[in-house]
Amino acid sequence: MLPTAKVKVHTASFPYVDITATSGSLFIKTTPFQTTGECVLGSRIKSIDAASEESVKKIGGTLGWSVVGGAIAGPVGLLAGALLGGKGKDVTFVAELDDGRKFMGTVDNKSFTKLKAESMRF
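The structure corresponding to this sequence follows.
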């Protein structure tokens, strides 16, 4: 069985029920009755970067300031902790898929590294 990591989604530009990461791919469930959801291969991830204040503002422009207000209020402390302190076990990131969908989430460092590596494959 492949290791699966649950992605804690802070905000997204599309409807979802659950997002998980497995072996450099994302599985996006859009209804509660899906067993695995849509498989998004790492090669379909247009960009995935550790969240910074700039990337949070960028996704905010896409989703609208009301959504970003909530996203910034909650995750800023989390961002600072994930990026600057702690043991680096979790990474908050902003991802854009090749179809234009975007989301901000948090996942363990190992899963983030695998997603990043798979998104860079040619």
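The two ends are 26 Å apart (CA to CA).
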